What does this fold into?
Amino acid sequence: MLLLSQVSKSYGNTRVLAPTDLQVPAGETLVLIGPSGCGKSTLLRLIIGLIKSDSGSITFAGTILTSENIFQIRQRTGYVIQEGGLFPHLTVRDNVVVMARHLQRNATWINSRFTELAELVRLPQELMHRFPAELSGGQRQRVSLMRALMLDPELLLLDEPLGALDPMIRYELQQELNGIFSQLKKTVVMVTHDIAEAAYFGHSLVLIRDGHVVQAGSFKELTLSPAEPFVERFISAQREPMERLTKALK
Ligand code: ADP
It folds into this structure.
C-alpha cells in the first residue's frame, strides 16, 4: 500500500532523515517511535507531500508520488497533526466538511457522511456548531479524526493523535480508534512517544534515532531481540518506572 525507498531529508547541512526504507501493507498499522526530534513527523510530512525528499521515492498504492499527482493522492490520505490542527474560526461541522465542499461534493452526500462519522467517533450532535476553543481536548481530537476520515481515505497519517489527552480519555479513545481502524480496514502510519500505545496499535513498530531506523518489527521482536542496546533502553525507560512502582506496592 505504502512504500518508501531510500527517502532522505536534510535542512541545509543538517540531515534529519537518513535514506530510509519503509513498507506498510494495506489494512495494517505502522507506528513510528523514537525520541523527540528524531524525524518521526518529518516522515509523515514527506508522505503527505508537505515537504519534498532529497532522494528516493514514495509509492502510494502503486503510484510514485510526484509534484503533479500529490494533490490527488492527498485526497486519498487523512492527516491528523499534533494537537488536531483544527481551523479556530470554523465550527466543528465546517472543519469536518471543508475539503468535501471545496471539492464540490454533493450536499446530501456530505450530510450523510458527516452524520455517519459523528456516530463513529461518538461526537454528540449538540457540539456541531461550536468552535474548537469551546471543546475539550478529547472532543477536538475526535473532530480532527472526523475531518481526516471525511473523504474515506485509504491511508491515515496520525501524528500523536492522542498526545494532548489525559490518561483516562486517552485509554478510552485508544480503544475506540483501534475499533475504527479495523472496522474500516484502514492503512495507518501513526507517530507516538508512548511505547504502550505503540504496542497496542502497531502491527509493526519502527524505532528511529537521529534520523536513522534503529529497528523495525513487532513489539515482541523489539522487546525479545533488540537490535542494539538503545532499543532496550528506549523500551525500558517507559516500562521500568511503572513496573518498579507496581512491585513496591505489593
Ligand atoms: P519528531 O517528530 O521525531 O519529534 P521532527 O521530524 O519534527 O521530529 O524533526 C526532526 C528534526 O528536524 C529535528 O531536529 C527538527 O529540529 C528538524 N526540523 C524539522 N523541521 C525543520 C525545518 N523546517 N527546518 C530545519 N530543521 C527542521
